[in-house]
């Protein structure tokens, strides 16, 4: 049951998928990126036609039962270790975490009980680059070893792998044609001990370009290579190995030399794939790696000298490639081979130190990009002896910056992906093969503990105990998980506001020279969304991603939701030109005695490079005013001029566009300066401390300089303006004061020069870049008029969980979380209940064989899980049925099987009654009465009001529903299941939950007699929401139904009794 309750943590640093790094160079490789997947192999999808033939180990009888008690479980899903028990029956794990009737099992003499005493129970390890036939001697000697002796040493290698805790090995080449296959079959038949194994043949090499003559299968040219591959396939190999580049130790065949032609590589992949075999390749050289990626080599060994272009291509195609770098061969050859006559100096001279360094850098980059990198260190040489395989995991942690959890997952679930059995290998989960090791230590604190074979107290493969000793169960060690810490980095100060492709707002640092934007985050790791946050954080922000081109972003004004506080006639020369222009209707003196303060409406604000709407029906005297904008950093009232500069956060650029005749005729500034688009602002905002005391402002129209002055020319200083404005009103952080414009505006010319469509206005300020805008064509749209109607105070709720709706699907105008699972021929759609989410069905859709039988569509109801709800939307069972209809339409199927729980049952029936031909079968789990009795309607309405008022927790709803909705047995024996119910309720959006309560309360009676398709009804013997008598009544009304009652089960059937539910579904659907 534990597996049904846990949620994998797919990312170590954040949740952003699909981010690209177009300007990341080799010099940057190895430095952290903002995101990386903890299980990148989940994105690898080998063609199903390449799945290896079934090599089943001799079956462990179902009478074999092993109970692990009191263990710390690392289940390889990415969840933190958790304490519990594990029960194995036959060859598979049956229960993880909470074992039902555990005391009965402990006292059962047929059950072998292992006292874990807090030790770590984890999946057996896997090696992606295995050579059973290497016997710790030179490669040149392998071909000369007699078959008999070689068979014995190979069988010994297989046993050593298992003794070392390795239960999965992917063969990388065999020194003799059939030896890998023979040993594989002997292991599977139970004749010799060893891990699960996928066998290889001799590696295919061109004549004169082989690594060693005795172990190579020679072929030159596409045709001969195809023939050799067919020969290998006839021997029964599981994959094909190509030897595409050299090896430094050979001296005359360098690692950077590539030996296969494009045509040869393409032919090998084509022929192998045609025969249902995958291809792996010894590819150190740049060109070899490029060919592997270009032509689809499935497993790339080494990849040391990959270049930037190939790295980019590999990232694009990471769904079909796995890289196994064999780091330990490089490391040991560089540092450990001295006692065997190969000194460090020699290794460095031959290039191994260089290759190790570039391989580390490349592998770090692959890992950060989400490319699957798996351990497997090319063991079986003198200085990489058998039995030291776990050194690779230490290298992954210490050299490649994997976390210990990432290293373990790569060596378990990751290698299971190579077997194409990732749904039954590589994890400690119910239904998976029981390949496990019990470790006396904590590999998450010290990954090297896995190298100490004495610490591998119990080794189990296929449910059989390979290694165990009574004294192994006496020791224990407490587990401690250390939380990662965030290390802030250097400050960046050219703050730019922009929208991403999902229209989410961000703040970054703009490099004015390169026009590249670096996204910024708070020290907490949360992305910075507005300049207000930067101001409030006092600029304590850090970079959180690689720079991206400004041209690919939607630039925004630094701040755009408040009116601008503006100042008129604040430069001496401009005051004179304005007074003499005939457009000044104020006090008719050149220099004002007090600051002239006015406001510009916030709807006038636009960003750099947005067009200025000309308003030809509003003005014929369109003019520019380049200005410096002061951004306030803290609130203040009646601020003393002497202290006023302490209230300045920074500066930006403003173009105070003006309709001069409106300014003149209305005898005030507001109307003529507040028209839509009349306040271009930006492109950046910069803290005052990053700028000189004196700022210079210049304005150009179509390249002609029109204005040029500095802040020394102001009539009223910035400090004076702040003091005057705050004298009667409180200024706030983020307020902007436009400080006035210098001489050189259009009305100051003789004759006046007004702006016309097509003109380009550019305002530049010291350290703030340039604000550029064009005057639009009169026939163009007013962008502000189009933007304002999109603003709404009727909020869409629950979007914060998907960062504004990322990954959601728009169905019927709603943002819905829909997932497709499995590849089976039949279509299933799952509808969850009140307070649940689509994750409720994960134990079903992930159970054995379901994905092969069904292609499943699971979705979240409105306001539940990850799906959004608008605060004003009215939700009913019929509106839910509309949403279900949209999901069914999305499947493209003519008819589907519907699986529904609780409220979902009402939705499923309402949808089916509209068109019964759309539904083949119905599985209804816990259908509530419809309509509810009057008391039930009142209770639901009160619950909706309580949740809206105080939320799921404070209202007591989560606790009350968890308590009433689960059975006595669940509460006593299955705390994880109980916690899952409570967690599901607590994570439900209160408004979404309340709306669903109202939908149930207002549901109308249904003519269920029209549901003529087969229907499976389920309820629990302690289900208070859907009591047995209610379901019996429904069963009697349905023409073709079957009813089942789950024992010791409340209303949350899947969480409480997943085996019972799965069994009934298998029999019915």
Automatic annotation (TrEMBL):
Ranges for domain Fumarylacetoacetase-like C-terminal: 564-775
Domain (AB hydrolase-1): residue spans on this chain: 829-1057
Keyword Metal-binding on entry: yes
GO MF, one example: metal ion binding
Keywords assigned: Metal-binding
Similarity section: Belongs to the FAH family.
The protein, known as: Amidohydrolase-related domain-containing protein
